Amino acid sequence: MNTQKQEKHTETFEEILLSYVEMCYAVALTLTRDPDDANSLTREVLEGAWHLRNRANATKNIKKTLLIAMRQRFIENYRKPVCTPQQHAVFAERV
């Protein structure tokens, strides 16, 4: 991609991402139930999407992609474990 096309593509992608900031924050707040965690989760997901901006079809299904990324990131980083490692060890001994 030449420099002018790349700059235009970057500007367009930035506009698209900015249009989804409020939606991402609302979903993150619903998942985390904490404003600070919601801000962090939103930032992480949007930064991750930004790094993928040069891929072909980066804007295709961006809403779906953001929501899937948010869910996955929440599961990996924010969801509270069902039991502590100590409880898990005790359970494993019983089985």
Summarize the structure in words.
The protein is mainly α and 95 residues long. It has one domain: RNA polymerase sigma factor, region 2, helix turn helix motif (Rna Polymerase Sigma Factor, Chain: A), CATH 1.10.1740.10. It contains five helices and no strands.
Encode the helix/strand succession as letters.
Answer: HHHHH
Count of alpha/pi helices: 5
Global structural class: mainly alpha
Low-confidence blocks of residues: none
Largest sheet: none
The radius of gyration is: 18 Å
- Identify the CATH architecture: Orthogonal Bundle
Shape annotation: elongated
Write the CATH fold name.
Rna Polymerase Sigma Factor, Chain: A
Mean residue pLDDT: 83
What portion of residues belong to β-strands? under 5%
CATH superfamily: RNA polymerase sigma factor, region 2, helix turn helix motif
- Name of the CATH first level: Mainly Alpha
Give the distance, in angstroms, between the N- and C-terminal Cα atoms. 58 Å
User: Considering DSSP H and I runs of 4 or more, what fraction of the residues is helical?
Assistant: over 70%
- Total strand count, please? 0
What kind of oligomer do you see?
single chain
Overall number of domains: 1
Quick structural gist:
The protein has helices spanning 3-19, 21-32, 35-51, 62-77, 85-94. It is an all-alpha fold.
List the topology elements.
Layout: H1 3-19, H2 21-32, H3 35-51, H4 62-77, H5 85-94
Helix pairs in contact: 2-3, 2-4, 3-4
Task: Sum up the structure in keywords.
95 residues, single chain, Rna Polymerase Sigma Factor, Chain: A
